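Message: Study each token:
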Amino acid sequence: MTTAGVWLQFGVLAAVISFAGYHLTYYADLISERTGLGRNWIGLILLATITSLPELVSGISAVTFAGSPDLAVGDILGSCVFNLVLVFVLDLIHRQSHVYGKATQGHVLTGALGVILLSFVGFSLMIGNRFAGARLLHIGVSTAAIPFFYLLAMKTLNDFERSGNSMEGQTAPEKPARLPATKVYPFFILSAMVVVAGGVALPFVGKNMIDVMGWNAAFVGTLFIALATSLPEIAVTISSVRLGVVEMAFSNLLGSNLFNVVILSVDDLFYRPGPLFADVSLAHAVTAFCAAMMTGLAMVALILKPQHRILNTVSGLSLFLLGVYLLNGYIVFKMGQ
């Protein structure tokens, strides 16, 4: 495999996932109108789950067929930090008003729950090798606990909404549906299937990239595989601005990170040699803590709703998000040398 061939494979898969991800956004917005579900809940539950399908499928493929646990964990946690740098992108491209003004208390609560989950993952990765014997069958105790934390987080968000604290923020005016229901749902499912197919192939491209470029698996997973599997989130972010549903983007980005953490448990279930966290690089702990730090920065911005833009581009807090993302990539690369 040549260098050009590897990058061609990566580019084709990235384009396919991006195209399907855009259509997922469009049909999810139509579903929100037809069902009467709020755009924030569509973003938090439906879009967050569907746009995380590439991470789910590529993670399972990485720990089984490709035999690279570092690619799987790097993909998941790399996607988390990439999702958060998309808040920077959202601030950059949303010119009508200050983007953080669209946020609600529900978004802040989702972010806080994300900080807890990501910090737990970072801590678990740090002690993974020392406590490899703490397992349920072949699954690590910490990854076995993650789904319960996720369900508790979903219950907390549901209770928050039921108590009268709406998850809804500002929304765009309702638009008449342009497609009948007989087409909306099949097209939505078809788009999801294309995303899944792209996710299956990604780890094999990642392995080729490791062999050809000589990079370590943690770095390739955290940066390149995570970028490709996060393309649906990019499509959601850009489309949400165009459609005037920025609150859906916030819900999707923060909700995707919650669901991404759960995928680590699924990856561990399919990883037969033993606990997943015992066989991966400590560099992933850095990524987990950077993701928690970036979520905290996003929460501060969502609460303060900064009005000032540096050179009329983005707020200072958004620049900090970009800075932490770049720093994380550099550290993971250096730790793999």
